[in-house]
Specification:
about 190 residues, four-stranded antiparallel beta sheet, alpha+beta, about 25% strand, 2 helices
């Protein structure tokens, strides 16, 4: 067989049938994956917002204990240092400061410990709202909260309350100053 010509047929592309089958399989996979990907992104964003806020609360409480002074968490406008009277905390930067003079407001001589950016400055996609009106969170020198608080953190979809409940949580802060996460809108009881 040394002298025989062996010809190899080299395929240089895809047939139309192979291309159509590949596109159909890809379409089915995308139809399944895209909604799950959106859900995954929204869930991760919610977890990040909740964990960031819980971390800020724990940080402020720890600083109050370590410094043996009152520490306050409140929203503020970007250019201001004083607390903003709003229940919509997510539209403002949130600051943590030592309340050395005990008046509940930050002035230029008081120590700013930390500031986090607004969750959603426009308030159209995500919200961080304080239940029960305006005010700040105040931790005393031993880490106790002045009052109990509830904050709602959720992805906005005004036409679908189930969507907001699915992508939302409430953060309850007890009088002892401990935060806990509960389903959105749950009535916080002192624990």
């Amino acid at each position: 067989m040394l002298g025989s010509n062996i010809h190899f047929k080299i395929q240089r592309g895809f047939t139309l049938i192979e291309l159509l089958i590949t596109m159909t399989v890809l379409g089915v996979l995308m139809a399944i994956a895209v909604p799950n990907l959106q859900s995954f992104i929204l869930s991760n964003r919610l977890s990040s917002d909740v964990n960031g806020f819980i971390g800020l609360i724990n940080y402020a409480r720890g600083e109050a204990i370590a410094r043996n002074q009152d520490v306050i968490i409140c929203p503020k406008s970007n250019s201001a240092i004083t607390c903003q009277a709003s229940q919509f905390w997510g539209e403002y930067e949130v600051q943590v400061f030592v309340d050395a003079n005990g008046n509940g407001e930050r002035n230029a001589t008081e120590i700013l410990l930390k500031t986090i950016p607004a969750t959603d400055a426009a308030g159209v996609a995500r919200r961080l709202t304080r239940d029960g009106g305006t005010g700040s969170i105040k931790f005393g020198a031993v880490g106790l909260s002045q009052t109990a608080h509830r904050f709602d953190i959720f992805q906005v979809n005004a036409s679908d309350a189930a969507f907001e409940a699915r992508y939302g949580r409430s953060v309850c802060i007890s009088l002892p100053g401990r935060p806990r996460v509960v389903p959105l809108g749950t009535v916080c009881t002192d624990f």
